[in-house]
DNA sequence: ATAGGGTTAG
């Protein structure tokens, strides 16, 4: 007897109690059916709640005493309709407590994220009133909230209290277990056993959850086990297939995912979205876009997940025009996303626009996001960091409401990779002080900072910490350590890293080759390069840059030439401007700048700044004035603010004693506002600039240093060190007998301390600096009489030494 | 009365 409408019910006179009870029950049933399936209380249509209240009022007015099942129904409906206070009032009024009503309330609390409230209610219900479903609701509540351990605790309580778990229990328990971060294969196996024993394995939802669980496990053999579960299933639904696709995508096995995808029928939007995001994660952006086109042409509905993945594909593949087209399409077709589901799209748009260099557009989109989440903040932070706008990045970082691990990492690596290594280290300490856990990549950045600063001891401490965190097999951390040790002059430790790293990738090979090159083992470096090729590792453009540098350090000009040719012919890598620049640098250092000229002529493009810089530096070494000045002019045209040009040019002038021209260059710098502190390339003594080069034998002071270096070389070789490069004498003040030398290796510096200059002036190592392997850092040697400020040049900045104090506070 | 899948920041 279906009731026709609420009005007929309300018109009934309260004569027949049974009839009335039936009508009430039927109406409640009708309301329940009208509720949407998902218990998303917030978005429920209020008409249902209004009708419910009207009905309830009528029940009360009729003076009819409803029995327990009607009351429970009401509790359930109020809970589902989002009126939890009413539900709770009714529930509390009824005695004894009813398991079904309690279940409804627990579910409603859990659905609105109020897990503690749900739990308190759960604990209040005495054992005799409980049933399996009651436990199930608490388990699934925790599972949905992502709290695996608490869900499993309830499961254990349930077994202890002698309740039999059913298929719903296991579905909940398995999905709860899947939220546990460090998931052991054993753990999955135990749960699997329990499922088999309970005889619920053939329930589709249980098997689905089991497959998803196995795929979330870190163990390598899981794909096979998940597949076995899948194969044993008698019946599968579309979720089974989807779970398989999603699982393989998780494991980055995109081919297997695709095979499952191709086999399944009735593919709906979720699978397509999973495939697209899978392709994006594997870097196969064109396949991702192809999927997008296909699903579009078949008429699968595009939702916010689709758009998010596709936009991410465009952003990562550099397909900015395509990305903007998709953005335009979203605006045009104007699907009405609620703010919550629009958020990921807006987030990825921030990334898209900052990646294509439109950081200001990205910022505007970011500003327009109403409820920003950590992803939004990190997206704009990363955008600023990547375009080098560190000040803006820092401003964002400081006002961010919730700084998670990633935010710290991005800000730290932003500092380090923009020449602010010390700031990076400081921020790292702050992060640790606040108890935030670093990623392995955070360590990589911080360790790189130590490499830049040459603070070996600090680097070693970080190495120890990193092992405590269990990151010793991380590739990014390992590569960073290798590079850091090499830059700090600890070549043996770098070698050790290379040997013990479980996975050596091309970055590791390149880093090790570079390390050997920097330490003067050019031959060994190119042997290692050949070894890498022998191991079947395909050298990339960075590998060739590295090996060219190694040849450069060791003066292996012909070998360098050979690698350059081999890169083009054997590996089909088109040399970039950077490769040409290294080649020219190599020729220049060997005094073959004329050949460098020919190389420039053979280039398929116009020479850019890096080429002219290499030419200029080659000319400085060997005093080709005309070409050097021409190169400097080109550089001035291209990048007038580039301080290095001025230094190099003035070095050329100084090499031939044209002090007026040196002064002219300095004045030019001042006029053009070039910010460069007068460093060790020149020092004013009695208003006169003196810059000498070791190669320039015309000056008697230089001759003396030459002799010194010769003797030093012999001594060093006896000690087992190999002086690898030409020494550049930065500064000689004949009056005061002060000498500043730049060299490559920390160990060489130790050797220097043992020496006396031929003239009798003593040389003292004020500080055994750990210098950077890029060989730009300088070690200062000076006579005991020296008392004025000394400036040591570092890779990225200058350090001022005065009265034994260094401006950065790190070295002394 | 209770359950299972997909998206974004490096």
Automatic annotation (TrEMBL):
Tree of life domain: Eukaryota
GO biological process, alphabetically ordered: RNA modification
Keywords carried by this UniProt record: Repeat
InterPro entries: DYW_dom (IPR032867), E_motif (IPR046848), PPR_At4g14850-like_plant (IPR046960), PPR_rpt (IPR002885), TPR-like_helical_dom_sf (IPR011990)
Keyword Repeat among record annotations: yes
Pfam families: DYW_deaminase, E_motif, PPR, PPR_2
Positions of PPR repeats: 131-165, 237-267, 268-302, 373-403, 404-438, 505-539
Segments forming domain DYW: 720-812
Molecular function terms from GO: RNA binding; zinc ion binding
NCBIfam families: PPR (TIGR00756)
Matching PANTHER family: DYW DOMAIN-CONTAINING PROTEIN (PTHR47926:SF541), PENTATRICOPEPTIDE REPEAT-CONTAINING PROTEIN (PTHR47926)
Protein name: Pentatricopeptide repeat-containing protein At1g25360-like
Species annotation: Phoenix dactylifera (Date palm)
């Amino acid at each position: 007897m279906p009731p026709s409408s609420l009005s007929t019910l309300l018109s009934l006179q309260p004569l027949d109690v049974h009839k009335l009870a039936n009508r009430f029950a039927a109406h409640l049933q009708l309301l329940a059916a009208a509720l949407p399936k998902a218990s998303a209380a917030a978005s429920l249509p209020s008409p249902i709640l209004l009708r419910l209240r009207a009905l309830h009022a009528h029940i009360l007015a009729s003076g009819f005493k409803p029995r327990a099942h009607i009351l429970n129904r009401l509790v359930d409906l109020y809970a589902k309709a989002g009126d939890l206070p009413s539900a709770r009032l009714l529930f509390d009024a009824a005695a004894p407590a009813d398991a079904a009503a309690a279940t409804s309330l627990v579910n409603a609390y859990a659905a609105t994220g109020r897990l503690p409230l749900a739990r308190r209610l759960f604990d209040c219900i005495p054992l005799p009133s409980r049933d399996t479903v009651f436990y199930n609701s608490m388990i699934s509540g925790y599972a949905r909230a992502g709290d695996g351990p608490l869900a499993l605790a309830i499961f254990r309580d349930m077994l202890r209290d002698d309740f039999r778990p059913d298929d719903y229990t296991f579905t909940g328990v398995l999905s709860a277990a899947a939220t546990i971060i460090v998931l052991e294969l054993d753990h999955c196996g135990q749960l699997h056993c329990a499922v088999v024993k309970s005889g619920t394995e053939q329930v589709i939802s249980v098997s689905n959850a089991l497959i998803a669980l196995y795929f979330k496990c870190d163990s390598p053999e899981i794909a096979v086990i998940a597949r076995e579960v899948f194969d044993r299933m008698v019946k599968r639904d579309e979720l089974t297939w989807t779970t398989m696709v999603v699982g393989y995508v998780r494991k980055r096995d995109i081919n297997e995912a695709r095979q499952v995808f191709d086999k399944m029928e009735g593919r709906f939007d979720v699978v397509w979205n999973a495939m697209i995001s899978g392709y994006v994660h594997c870097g196969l952006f064109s396949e991702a876009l192809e999927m997008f086109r296909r699903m579009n042409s078949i008429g699968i509905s595009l939702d916010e997940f689709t758009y998010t993945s596709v936009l991410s594909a465009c952003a990562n593949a550099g397909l900015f025009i395509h990305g903007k087209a998709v953005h335009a399409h979203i605006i045009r077709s104007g699907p009405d996303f609620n703010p919550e589901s629009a958020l990921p799209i807006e987030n990825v748009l921030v990334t898209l626009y900052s990646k294509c260099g439109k950081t200001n557009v990205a910022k505007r989109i970011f500003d327009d996001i109403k409820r920003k989440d950590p992803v939004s903040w990190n997206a704009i932070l990363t955008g600023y960091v990547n375009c080098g706008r560190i000040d803006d990045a820092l401003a964002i970082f400081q006002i961010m409401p919730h700084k998670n691990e990633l935010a710290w990492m991005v800000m730290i690596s932003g500092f380090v990779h923009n020449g602010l290594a010390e700031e990076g280290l400081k921020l790292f300490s702050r992060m640790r002080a606040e108890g935030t856990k670093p990623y392995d990549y955070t360590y990589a950045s911080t360790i790189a900072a130590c490499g830049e600063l040459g603070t070996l001891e600090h680097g070693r401490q970080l190495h120890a910490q990193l092992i405590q965190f269990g990151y010793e097999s991380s590739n990014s951390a390992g590569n960073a350590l290798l590079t850091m040790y090499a830059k700090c002059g600890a070549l043996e430790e770098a070698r050790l890293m290379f040997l013990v790293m479980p996975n050596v990738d091309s970055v590791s090979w390149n880093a090790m080759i570079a390390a050997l090159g920097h330490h003067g083992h050019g031959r060994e470096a190119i042997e290692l390069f050949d070894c890498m090729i022998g191991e079947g590792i395909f050298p990339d453009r960075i590998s060739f840059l590295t090996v060219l540098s190694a040849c450069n350090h060791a003066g292996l000009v012909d070998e360098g030439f050979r690698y350059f040719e081999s890169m083009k012919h054997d590996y089909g890598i088109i040399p970039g401007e950077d490769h040409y620049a290294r080649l020219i640098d190599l020729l220049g250092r060997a005094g073959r700048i004329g050949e460098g000229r020919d190389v420039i002529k053979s280039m398929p493009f116009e020479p850019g700044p890096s080429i002219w810089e290499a030419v200029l530096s080659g000319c400085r070494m060997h005093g080709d004035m005309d070409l050097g000045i021409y190169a400097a002019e080109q550089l001035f045209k291209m990048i007038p603010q580039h301080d290095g040009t001025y230094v190099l040019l003035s070095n050329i002038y100084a090499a031939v004693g044209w002090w007026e021209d040196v002064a002219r260059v300095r004045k030019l710098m001042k006029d053009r506002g070039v910010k460069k502190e007068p460093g060790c390339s020149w020092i004013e003594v009695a208003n006169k600039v003196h810059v000498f080069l070791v190669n320039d034998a015309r000056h008697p002071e230089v001759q003396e240093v030459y002799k010194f270096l010769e003797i030093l070389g012999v001594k060093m070789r006896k000690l087992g060190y190999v002086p690898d490069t030409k020494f550049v004498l930065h500064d000689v003040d004949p009056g005061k007998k002060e000498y500043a030398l730049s060299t490559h290796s920390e160990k060489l510096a130790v050797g220097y301390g043992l020496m006396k200059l031929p003239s009798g002036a003593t040389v003292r190592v004020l500080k055994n600096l750990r210098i950077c392997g890029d060989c730009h850092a300088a070690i200062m040697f000076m006579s005991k009489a020296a008392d004025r400020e000394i400036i040591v040049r570092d890779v990225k900045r200058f350090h001022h030494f005065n009265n034994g104090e260094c401006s950065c506070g790190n070295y002394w």
